[in-house]
Amino acid sequence: MLADGRCIDGLQEELAGSKLYLNVTRDDWSIEPWYISTNQIGIRSRFLECDRMRKVREDDYILFEVCHSFI
Predict the structure, then answer these.
(1) Which of 9, 29, 30, 33 is paired with 61 by a 20 to 30 Å CA distance?
(2) Percentage helix, strand, coil for the chain under 3-state DSSP, each rounded to 5
């Protein structure tokens, strides 16, 4: 990581060139594609040898975005 907080591992550039997205179900039940390159979702820590990656199929999970107002 650089002094200004930017990372130098190439992940930002790799994400910017990708078309990866998640379908997010919003609190009004509409579905919106959430592009990873613009929302910057990424794992920054290194995986251990015992960690396993799992490829997620389209129907495996539903990701919800719920907005709450706190008073």
Answers:
(1) 9
(2) 15, 20, 65
Q: In the structure, how many helices (H) and strands (E) does the chain have?
A: 2, 3
Most confident by average pLDDT, 15-19, 29-33, 59-63: 29-33
Place of tokens 């396993």: 52
CA 64 to chain centre: 13
Are 71 and 63 in contact by the 8 Å Cβ rule? The answer is: no
Q: What is the DSSP letter of 50?
A: T
Amino acid at 24: V
Torsion angle in degrees (nearest 10) through CA of 13, 14, 16, 21: -160
If you count them, how many residues does the chain have? 71
Model's pTM, two decimal places? 0.37
